[in-house]
Structure formats: C-alpha cells, structure tokens
Amino acid sequence: MRGYFGIGIHGVNKPFNVGNLFRTAHAFGASFVYTVDAQYTKRKGNKADTSKSLEHTPFYAFPTLEDMLLPKGCQLVGVELTEDAIELPSFRHPTQAAYILGPERSNLPQSTIDRCDHIIKIPMKFCVNVGVAGALVMYDRVQSMGRFAPRPVRAGGPTEELPTQTSHGSPIFRKGSPFEESPPGVPEKWDE
Asked: Which residues lie within the region annotated Disordered (predicted)?
C-alpha cells in the first residue's frame, strides 16, 4: 500500500480504549500514533495494548492543538458524527493522512474540526467507543487503498485471481546522461 497514515485522539476519557486504539493502529501498520491535550500514560494504556505498540510505533503527545505538527502534505481527517461529514464508505482516503478522533463522552472541539481538511463519519445510529471507531476507519483505509482481489457478485470469496502487479521496467535515460549506454565500439563519454 502506498502512502502513510497516523491516528490519534483529542483528549482522553478512558485510557484503556486509547491503548486498544494504538494496538489496532500497530496491527494495521500505522506510521505514528498521537494524543492532543490528553493525559495518557503508557502504563495504563498497556493494560489494553498487549502488543506494546508504543515500543514499535512512533508516539507523539501534543500538549495543545496549536502544538500539533504533521508532516508536510499530510491531511488531517476528523472522525465525528456531524450532519455535513462525509460518510466513510463514500470517502477517498488521502495518501498521506492523520486521523483524529474525539474523546468518548464528548465531541471533537470546534477548533479541531476547523483545522481538519476532511470530516468523516461512520454511518451508524450513535457513537461507539474510540477503539472501535478507529478500527473501522483503519480497516476502510486498508480495504479501499490496498491491493486485493475484486469482490465477487455472489456471496463468498473471490472467483478471479488478483492481477499480477506490473513491473516498472528498466530505467530510461535522456540523451547526454553520463549513464546512457554508448553504442558498441564508441568510448564512454567520461572516458574521452
């Protein structure tokens, strides 16, 4: 899969659910995890984070939203149940993305929503815990951006093989390049 993603939470109510979110992020291959304006301790989170993800995935603890730094080109994607949010099955994930979820028992602050490039929602009747919401978003990202055989029309597994990945071939050099091959019998340019 091309690109990268990170996932984090603005505020923390239940550290065990954040530990679960970070463990799931580790399993889905997140490039980084983070918190914003949150009191999160590795000790409490490790009770749910059985993979000890913070030993394998970079972790950033931003004291405030203003302190949050993302890599250049990385788009911030808020996950929140709002009227105008894009429903997850209709969302095209950015190649470079950082997803941010709100704390349980509360919503993403308006200042965070204003900073987001996109707001998405999971089509459901009410909010689920942050670990489940994050897992659904990451699964959708992997499913929509990964390389998988097409789904069959009928129930069951794929009936078609996954097409072989095309090779990019050997490099093509422009004329005058010192690496361009010389015709047989002609000395190399740098040997002249």
From this structure: 150-192
